[in-house]
Design a protein that fits this description.
The protein is built from twelve helices and twelve strands. It is α+β, with helices and mostly antiparallel strands.
Amino acid sequence: MIGRAWQRLRQPTLVRRMVLAQMLLLTLLWSLAVGFVMIDGSQEAMVSNRSMMQAIISVSDNLAEQPVRQQESLRLIDEAVREAYMLGEVEEVAPIMLVWQQGKLVYRSPYAPDGIRSAGPDQMEIVYIKGQAWRSSTLTHHGTRVTVLEAGGPWQFFVTLNSHGYYLLPLLISLPFLLLPAWLSIWLAMRPWRAVAQEVAARGPHDLRPLAGKPPHGELASLVDNINALLHRVQASAERERSFISDATHELRTPLAAMRINVEALQAQADNPRQQELLDGILGSNQRAARLVGQLLQLTRNEARLEAPGELAPQALDELLQDRLAAMAGLAQQRGIELELHSSGPVCVTGQRESLVSLVDNLLENALKYSPRDSCVTVSLHAERGQAVLHVADQGPGIAPELHARVFDRFFRAPQQEQAGSGLGLAIVASVVRQHGGTIALHRASGGQGLLVEVRLPQTPA
């Protein structure tokens, strides 16, 4: 369970990509806002505010005879400046104020480091204190001198702010609270996309009809249009392929029948054993070719019915099995194989009789072909939980389990197969099963030898 959860987390999704894009956009907007504040603050620096410095000089001169009130007033001005700059708790970048009267230092900001010297009168310069750059400005009037220092440059200002968490901390606090609303809004907005995906996933491999739902959203409507255009092209290609196979098989049946008649006529006139042997070989090849042509035509018709099913009617599957086993009795007797039928009673399915006959005939022919002489082919039919279950078991060599999925492909034959064949029998059976909404599976026959084919079709009440 943990592994599956980890795989789902690792798998890229559009929702996650859009949520990350929103988070990145929020981070970018916050960074731009911080940058604007830094640039704006640098343009309104206190060191260039001469009115503020003149006010400090005025307060210092007026309260020169009252040192206690002078200290208190200057402290209040210093705190007001810090609050105005919202930097009262960031000592490294808080403005520093120093006031001298008659060469004596009368006030010093609490966070002012040692080693500060004043700039020249009415000048602004960059000074370095403990490796940090500060902008320094001094104003002198009648023996009173005020020096103000601020952190040097927006970059230094940003680095100091970030070291105290003023940049990252708001992002870390706000992102989790925005994550769920962002995900929910994107998930709701992608409902039309999921509806289209569900409709595509519900389609079978032969359902090439255009998608029924066309959303009004421009981006999704374009995607649906392209999918419908692709389905139309695939359907046209499949129809051309079926038409070609159908036409070719119809055209081949006549010359194959004529060839068989001519070969049989030659057999009646040939006296040489060698000629008889050659004619037997030609006749056998003709029979295999005729069977292949018939199977191709049958497969094409079944696939056409799958895409455009005709009228379906209730079919008594038990009676159909009896008819087909009777029809195959001569072939089974010729090969020395016994046919057995076990039926629990009347079983009815809804379908097309011609297709169901094709299904049963191909299963029986395959079982008779691969069963050894003096063996038995067992056919059983019973109803189980609303399904008609058909079993056809032989005593032949069977099919390796790793090849069970591939033997339903057209023209696929198991390696080292000694019996001649076209590889179309099980493909025809699978197409009929799909046409009737059933399932097909291969198992090893009872006793560990041979193959058991299990077909399940929806049962119809009799």
